Amino acid sequence: MKLVRKSGVLALLGLLASLVFPSQVFAATTAPKLSAGDTSWVLASSALVLIMTPGVAFFYGGLVRKKNVITTMFQVVAVILIVSVQWVLFGYSLAFGPDFHHIVGGLQWALFNHVGAAPATQYAATIPNEVYAIFQMMFAIITPALIVGGLAERVKFSSFLVFILLWSTVIYDPLAHWVWGAGGWLHNMGMLDFAGGTVVHISSGVAGLVAAMYLGKRAEHGSPNIKAHNVPLVLLGTSLLWFGWFGFNAGSALQANPLAGSAFLTTNTATAASALGWMLVERWRTGHVSLVGASAGAVAGLVAITPAAGFVTPGASIILGGLGGIICYFAATLMKEKLGYDDALDAFGGHGIGGTWGALATGLFATTMVNSGGANGLFYGNPHQFLLQAVGVAASWVFSGVGTWVLIKLVDLVMGFRVTKEEELMGLDMVLHHESAYPEMLTVHELPTMLKGENVAPRS
Fold first, then answer.
1. Is the pTM of this model over 0.70?
2. What pairs with residue 155 in β-bridges?
3. Assigned superfamily of 33-418
4. Which distant-in-sequence residues (6+ apart) come within 8 Å of 41 by Cβ?
5. pLDDT in tens, 45-103
6. Which residues, 6+ apart, have CB-to-CB distance to 400 below 8 Å?
7. CA–CA gap between residue 305 and residue 298 (Å, rounded)
């Protein structure tokens, strides 16, 4: 009997506590729980996204001439090294830290302070903040690596490293906060970007265009010798990109859930449709199809579907991808020829234009039937969303374009940006790194003879 009375008293005390301290009871019952499945999926996706950057190295390395393979691939790999450290020091805090006037994150999370096992509920409630930071680090790495395509075969390695550090800090981090950061102005406005059409592809593509225009044409531009030197490397790079992109897009669901599966499916479908679209136009214009063209078309599809992957149906992804391949083909051929800029590896034609189309198409095809946390687009009765997407595209173009020009100009004034014509003609692999991708290439001691007796000493 005493036990019954005691139990009753405890129950009454518990009821009184719930009335006096309702917030504590509510917090205890609704606090987000970490999910081992979600954490595993996001960590695996992070590894997938990381492998995309070596994929870029192979893709770009196959497209350049064999005398510049090492330099091009090393530039891409160097980005991994720089941004991996920068992200921990202050990059993550600037991009995703506590909001500062809707423009950039504060430095409270610098050196990963306050970034640990607890979730950052404003971003992902079921995974540790540290895991979310790791995932976002891989996006911060691959974005500046894509710029290499616009400035390939012309740039001093030391100047490139400084430029990448500045660009990641001044351009990428604030733009990521605008679009994805809690409090960012584009985020607050309601613009949709599932996995980086604006943050990753428009920013890097426009930066590649600015770099190409600032540097001017390569010394041998227009020569038949400027062509992809190793098509199997191009295919290898495309394959790694396609493989890793499932982490890029499906991982952006941030949970192992049906939305991740939907993003996975739309990514694969759009990529295939884009490659077919590119091949169709290439066959019509040239009378043949090429493996390099099909690879470029696949990458264009991956780019185009990125902002829309978690918002559109599989049927819409076919249209989005197919048109993306066609649009990017003309951007990489006719538009580049008409405007006369030397975007060496079509960073702008593939990523700048592909990202622009994808971001705008999100405003056409997005539907809450796929993602209740998103919005309907124009074709589902909401023309306002298309306008929001256009604002995001314009802001990304202007910010990356102007900011990139200022940073290149600054680096050029302080330490020079472009190699000399003589060094360019010799090939940057030997001049800058004393290495060759192929054994039949000339050794560093034989290089000056290539310039008809001109005495040009290789750099250390």
1. yes
2. 418
3. Ammonium transporter AmtB like domains (1.10.3430.10)
4. 251, 255, 256, 260
5. 999 999 999 999 999 999 999 999 999 999 999 999 999 999 999 999 999 999 999 99
6. 171, 175, 202, 203, 204, 206, 207, 210
7. 11
